[in-house]
Each structure stands twice: as C-alpha cells, then as structure tokens.
Records
---
Amino acid sequence: MKSSGFWGSLFSRHDTLSFVVLALILLVVLPLSLDIFRLSLMGKYMTYAFVALGLALCWGYGGVLSLGQGVFFGLGGYMLAMFLKLESSDPESTAIQTTPGIPDFMDWNQITELPWFWEPFYSFPFTLAAVLVVPTAFAYLIGVAMFKRRVSGVYFAIITQAIAAILTILIIGQQGYTGGVNGITDLRTLLGWNIRSDFARYVFYFVCVGLLLLCIVISQFVSRSKLGRILVAMRGAEDRVRFSGYDVANFKTFVFCLGAAFSAIGGAMFTLQVGFMSPSFIGIVPSIEMVIFCAVGGRLSIYGSVYGALLVSWARTAFSESFPELWLFAMGALFIAVVLAFPDGLAGLYNQYGRRHVERQLDKWLLTLKSSTRTASVKGVAHERQ
Amino acid sequence: MNASNTDFVLAVENLTVSFDGFKAVDDLNLYVDEGEIRVIIGPNGAGKTTVLDLICGRTRSTQGSIRFRNRELTKMTESDIVKSGVGRKFQTPSVYTELTVYENLEISYPKGRNVFGSLFFRRDETIVRKCEEVAEMILLKDQLYDSAGLLSHGQKQWLEIGMLLIQDPELLMLDEPVAGMSVTERHETAKLLRRISENRSVIVIEHDMQFVAEIADKVTVLHQGKILTEGPIDTVKNDPKVVEVYLGH
C-alpha cells in the first residue's frame, strides 16, 4: 500500500522479495551450479510450474479445481510440435517415404496427403498464435458450457478429468493424424536452427525463465486486482457475489482460461526443450500430478506453486533414479500428507514459521538502506553548498 | 397475467411456485409501497424465504408475476435483478471472511462488475469515501481494515446490510437481520433500518416480535404459502388466526 507506482501496485514488499529470490535462483544460481543436462531438466520441470501457477489462480484463488490441466499443456505442446514436425519433414529428408514431404507417422499410416488442419502449421506466426489461442478457446468453451449451467466443485473436476481421458483416447486413436501413442517425435530444428544443441538448450532455458516470470507478473496483476478479490470472495460465498450483481460464471471462465493459457505456454516450452510431445502428458495421471505440484507448493500462493512444481519434479527424478517402483507410492503419500498435515503446502509452512523472521530482517535491511542513502544525499547537498 | 402498471415499488401477483407438486408459495399477492418497511412473519415453512428467493431470482416461479417498478423480474437473471435495484441479505450472514471489511464493501460497490472492468478497476477517492461513510453507518468504522472473519455474528449482519446499502438499492430485502444479536444490537439495527428506509422500501423477514413492532409499517403473515392476514402490527398481533398458527396462546 505504501509503495507507489506500477510495481508497487502489483507487488507488495514481500512479493517483491519472493519474486527477486525466485528470479535469482532461476537466472543465476541454477545456471551457474548445474551442467547443461541438469539445467535442461530444470527447464523441463519449469514447464510444469506454468501449469501449477495457473492452478494456483484457478483452484487456490477461484476455488475451481481442474483435474484436466494436462489437456491445455498438451494442446499447447502439440501446436508447436506440429510446426516443428512439418519443418523436419521437408521432401529431401523424407525422400525414402512413399509420400515425401509429410510427417513420417502419416506415411506409416498410409496417409498420402497432409490433412487440412495441418496446413496452417507451416506458418510460424500462426503456430505461436495457435499455442495460446487454441487451448484458451477450448477452455472458454468448457467454461461457458459448465459454469453457465452452475456445474462446479467435484462435478466440474470429474468432467475436466473425463475431457483429459477423451482427448488422450482421441489422439491415440487417430494415429495417422496425430502420431498416436508415440506422439510427435524426432523434432530437429526451429526455423532452421538446431534445437538439440547445448546452446539452444541454454537459450530455451532462459526463454522459459523469462516467460515464467512474465506469467508470475500477470498472476500478481490478477490476484491484486479487484478481480482477484472477487475470486476469493466467490470461493467463500458464491451466492453473495452473485447477488451483488456479478455474473459468477464469467469470472470462473476467465480464471479457467487464464490457467489454460499458462499451461499452454508451459506445454509449448516442454516440446521445445524435450524435443517431442505425446499423449502421456495430457491424460489423467499427469493432470493429477500437476494438482499435486500445486498442492505441495501451496495452492494459495503464486510462488509456492512454482516451487512445488520444481521441487516435486526434481524429487521424482532423484527418487525414481534409485527406486523406480516406489516413486508412485511416495507421490501418493506426499499428497495425503499435504492434505492432512499442511493443507496450505510449503507456502503455508513458510508463512507460519519463516515469514516473520524474513520480514523483520527485511525491515532492518531497508532501514539501514534508507538511512545510508539519506546520509549520502545530505552529504551531497552539503557538498553542493560548498 | 394482467400486467397493469401500478404505483407500487413492488407488485407481486398470483405468484406460485411448486416443488414436485408441493406449493411452497401459493397464489400470493403482495404490494409494497414507496419508503415502506414491510415485515413478513409466519411459522417455519410458511414460504417466507422462498418469497425473497423468488423476487431476487434465486428460485424461478411456476406462475405469476413479480413487477419491480413495473419491470417484470421473473425472467431476468440474478445479476440483472440486482442491477435494476433489488438487494437481498441472506439468512445466515454471508460476508467474505477472507477479505477486510473495506474490501467487502468495495466489492459490493456497483462499479467494475464485469470481468475486465474488475481487472482494471482502480480505487478512487469517491469509492473510499463511500465505503467509509457506509462503515460509519453500520458502526464498523473502527474495524474497516480488519478481516471480516474476525467480526462478531451481529457485526457480520451489519456488514452484509452495509454491502447492500453501498449498492443503493431501491428495494432492500433482509432475511432475519437481527438473528443472533444482543438487545442493544437489535435497537441499533432498528434505528439503522429506520434511517435507510427513508429513501427506499424494505422487506424484512423476522421472528422477534418486539423487533417487528419496533420497525414495521405493515406486517404480512404467511402460512402454508398463502397470506393469512395483513395490516398494522397491533391488528395482526390480536388476530385469532395469527395467534392460532404462529404466535401461540
């Protein structure tokens, strides 16, 4: 409240600290301490953070639990994968196919012509737009269809889960058009630029950090706007909001679309960094994992959800390297523990125990900073007088 | 349906709603005047809350008409009914417990009510002043920046009334506004209602007969979805039918 200006209206003092710390970790600490293989893995985990961030707004703030965020993550990823696939399927490199110039999996499925809906994906600007627009528009349709009919809570969650299952089955079933269960693989270049080189991986990592920070800024803007407060109000007393003249369905649809758009960006960055996209990132299991990321980090916290995604994914890799069978049990146990013992996740624990000390330290630090700048300016004035 | 125009603020005519054959409100006629405080009383299940639900659009009528300033409400959406000037307080105080008193009032202020309007909503001096003014009226000036979850039951009731006042509705409907209040709080609420009815009509559902006597211009007694009797409190109180079904012997 005290600080003014654009930044001050979006970030409280503590938010600023959280933002700077996260930015430092992602931009400085991790790149300096990890080799490119591990850093690239971190980049992959970060793509889940987009989804978790969207869930923090949608579920944490708005109370709309979606168990189908994988749909939007996957759609975003597929949009970009289609473009990359077309680029790597030029007639020269596919000369051995029956029909050169179409993606290899189509050729294997006796398809002899590029399907119409693949055509626009020759255009890079179209693809970028589609990454954002297609998943968001799909979320909009679901939102309008469900929320206008007052479908909410568990029913909504189950429907989103069903949609995730349907989309997976559809993609696997339409192998010739979608690449089926293998997904769209063997992606090599982006606008003629090798996406598998170490340099490209560094670039993608930093682009991913940049986009994530941008999404956090957007989340801050939303959560601190009146809309953010309406979402919180709706979560507790939906009827009161409705009978205060708001069309509740529109607000739910908005936040659901925003979560979908974030997830789509994450999905597209996933395709770029991992080099393929498959239905295994769309279905029920990944969608629920995303919810666990968000819950562990703290669904009420923008930053918590990001840390949740990074930490749980990292733990999964570390754990499944040594105990591959146990990981799923550990994940389930973690979720149960979060729900029972610390429902507000890591962020809740931090707010309860750590935050006070941090705030006090910050107070002290700002005070010294202020007094030292004041002495400096006084000295400056004195100097000018002389 | 004869939709003849009237001078009443609210004209409810032949209103019926049936839930699986059970008529919760049965052929009801109710007219509320400008600046009137109307109290609806009646035993449990008489259909009092249902009448308010029907007026504010929470429940859809089976037949009949509800005209507010000669505009038919039965086909309008809840938010449009609110925008046309009807405010409604729920039986259990519903305020936003995770927000401050100020934020509760600000959300209720009729500005930036659509998605993008609220996203780019800017707090200005008029709004802050209006919120402070209402907070003073509902005796919550000192709690303005406290979380609404910390308020007492009675204070939550006031806050919800305040949230309606800030919308400046022409018709205010209050479902048991003094439930859970102390005697002093009840007096304060009666004073508050007197003050706010100076330039609007108020419909109140209440059980506390002392409070009813304190505020009512006119009392309507509902019984099994029908009007048993209607009139000034003293007449109603002594009506043998009312004593029989509601007030007891």
Note: Residues 10-92+153-247 of chain B form a domain with the Rossmann fold fold (CATH 3.40.50.300).
---
Amino acid sequence: MLVFESYRRAVSSILAELGEEVEDLVVLDADTGRSTGSLAFGKKFPQRYINVGISEQDLIGTAAGLAIAGLRPVAMGFSMFIMRAFEQIRNTIARDRLNVKIIATHSGLSPHIDGASHQSLEDIAVMRSIPGMTVVVPADYMATRGLAREAILQHRGPLYMRLGRDNAVKVYDSDEGFRIGGSRVVADPVDVVIYAVGPMVGISLEAARLLARSGVRAGVIDLYTVKPIDADRIRRASSRSILSVTVEEHNIYGGLGGAVAEVLATSGAGRLLMIGVEERFGASSKDYNELLEMAGLTPRSIASRIEAAIARVR
Amino acid sequence: MFEELASNGSAWHVASSRSALNIIAAVYGVWIPLGRILGVERVGLLSKGHASMALYTWLAASGAIGVDELKSYLSPRGRLQAHPEAGRVPGIVASTGSLGQGLSIANGIVMASRIDGKPREAAVILGDGELDEGQVWEAAATASAKRLEGVIAVIDRNLIQHTGRTEEVKPKEPLEDRWRSFGWHVVTVDNRLEDIAWAMVDRPRGRPLAVIVRQ
C-alpha cells in the first residue's frame, strides 16, 4: 500500500524550524508561497521573507545579491518556472559559486490537475548540466526534512532540491541519516538493483515486493544525491546484480537514468533498464495515480518491465 | 590608456566601453570611496559586462591592477576576461556578461541590509540597449515595491546597441517616463564625470534612483 505525504508540508515545517536557529536564513519566493509552503516561514519571520512577485529571473538574481551580502538565501518556486531562470542560475549562482539553495516544488507529474504546462520532467537534466551544481531529490516527507536541514546547515554553494507536491510516497520513519553526496539502500539488492529518486523510491519498493512474489529478488537504492552521484555505490551494487534499473518521474533522457548510465558505461558494471517518462509532456488529471499509470510508473508496470528485461538478460 | 588598449589589438566593444568610462570613474572613483567616509558599504555592478575595457582601464589608472596587466586582456589564463569575473578582479562582486541581470543582484544586496542591519548601497551600470531585457523591469518593479532607496541605476544612454541605433532597433524613449512610471526618481545628466557623480551623491531619497547619462 502506498502512503502519500506532502513534500511541501515537509519543507514548510523544516524551514520554520531552521528559522529559529539560523539567523541569516532568508526565504524568497516568486508569489507562490501559498503553494510551495514558504509562506509559513514568512508568517513566522516576516523580516526574513521576500516575495518578489511573479518574476523568477528576478527571484534568482535577488537571491544572488543576498548571498553576496553574506546571508543564507533559499529561493523557492515551482520547478517548471525555476527553469525559466536557468541562465541566471548558471551565470550568477553557479559561476560565482554562491551559497544559494534553490528548493523547487511541484516537480514531475505532481501538479496533476495543472497538466503539461506545470509538470517539469526536464529539470534534473537541466540542473545536472551546470558545473558545480549539487542536485538533490528527496524521496519522502522525512527525507525532505533531513536533506533540507543538511543543505542549509552543512552545505556551502549552489544546490538544487527537487520536490513534488503532495505525492511523497512514504519510505522513512526518521529524518536522520541523510547527507548531501550520499545515497541509501532501502532494500538490499540481490538479482536486480533498482535506483530511484523522489516518489519513485516508494513506488519501486512496492514494485520490488511484487517481483518477490514471482521469485525475483530486487533491491532498491535511493540515489537522493543525483549530483555528485554516489558512483562507488552504483559500481558495487550493479556489478553484483544481473540487471540495473533506474526509475524516475522525469524524462528518461538526462535525469537519473542518464546519471547512472554515465557511471555504468565508464565502469562496465552491467546492463541498464531506464524507466521514466518517455520523451513526452504531462497531462491534466484529477488523480495523480492516473498519470502514473499513463506514464508506466506504477509498481505493477515497473515490475512487469523488469521481469521482461530479466528474461532478455538471462 | 584606454585608446592605447583599443589600438593594440585588444579592441572589443570599444564604443560601449568608451561611453561608460566616465560612469565607471564616477561609481568606482567617487561614489564608492565616499561611502567609506559615510560608513556605507557601496558596491558597483557592471551589468553591461561587455564594457570591461573601460573597467580594466579604470582599475589600471587607479592603481588597483598593474598597467602591465592590461596586456593580458582576453587571454584564457589571465583574470581580465572579456566579461569581468567576481573574486578575480578587484571591485567586482558579481560576474556579469549576460545582459539584464545586475539590477536584481543589486536589489538583493541592498535588501540584506534590512536583515543584518549593515548599511549597503549598490550602483548598477546598465546599457540602454540592455533595457530591452525583461528582467531589468522585473527588478525595477521590485526595487520600487520594496522602496530600495539604496539602489542606483546608472544608464549609459549612448544610443547604440549591437545592430544599430537604439531608437531604430527598439525605441527606449520616453526613457525618463518609463523609469518614473515604475516608481523611481529619475535624473538625466551629461556624460561628464562630475555631473554623474554629483547626481549620485546629491540625490532625493525614499525611492531608487535612475541616472540617465546622455551623450
């Protein structure tokens, strides 16, 4: 059974907590504070909350200025529209290695009613291509809390955190044990290793349970740091498995699948099946699960693709 | 010094740099040093980053870099890149080169003062062609909405942009009215060092200020 929690509630709660202990923490938003959850911080710390209006390029530039002045800005917005400021992120935040955290919500298919215009399926690829950019994709509510805390307290420099909306499939019971640059084995791999990020970690766990029923022992690794990726863990896990699989709520090109493929292709550590949204845009639905079905990202569909791939490998 | 640099094979965006020389001298030579006396941390942002020849010439003339270093302009291992880079060149707090982005950064720097209490002001050197960029107006609206009186936009009204005269490519006039309608104080001055510096120093408060430097 999948249990859905809310990414934005998670980030909202941790920011409000961190505001108490981190005096130079400033949160910015481009007039989406009600939706991203940043407004809770704004209500608690109005002096340290900046709404720049509906202007994402200005949002990123303003955050850059705050970082240059020595403060610790967190810029929030919908991941689709943060991409509108790709060049500002690349040319100022990244080129000057500024300590700006970009926390983007509503990624993937999660704004399920809004449809294609709001469903970012390209953002991991875009952010991963920027030199020096750290890219983090938390799996669930607890992971979001733990990684946002790490990002703000421990990490210096540019960082992009990709969150969904209310589609955080529950995986973890605690927000401890996450570290920027790390990854986590959620279920030990034997025959098959599934690498997943975001809500696909929980979905993949369910797929692994289905596979176990037909005798396939699949493990799941949460590669929550997509960049810099935990290449050692990938090489070790993949070299012991007959098949490696990536599952992501993102276009199959350039995202998690691309990142893992880069490691495997340069180490010769096994075959890869890449599961994701296949070169298309999203759509509107009143039910998020309906979109997962359309994209082939349900546990059942993932399990059957893995079984078919194993048959080919064997 | 500038003309020497322009004639020794390093000519690059010469007209844009030449028209910005007095502005750079006013910002870096008068306004910023005056801030030190007043106890205000003042920074300059060369939003029109392609005017680097003017900036580097100023830095050499004022002794911030050696005159000999100008010979390394545009060389891959040198720090005098075509578009100035922060942390490498004295007085550069943000790397530029992509147009339209300096004003947002200035807003952020000045807003930080409201949070940590350290007084800061920022002057942004904008090209008039650069005003075609939408982000300039996003930031102009933000500076006005937040009443950032510590932000000054100095506009190099040289009437030219990449492919021709500004009023033929995409008219900027009525330029004063544009800034005023965004809630800014506006003053137009001649391209003389003392006029630019005076406009920046003896200024109305309460709102951000645009100084249009006409040719």
Note: The interface with chain B takes residues 24, 26, 47-48, 50, 52-53, 55, 57-58, 60-71, 73, 87-88, 91-92, 95-96 of chain A (CB under 8 Å).
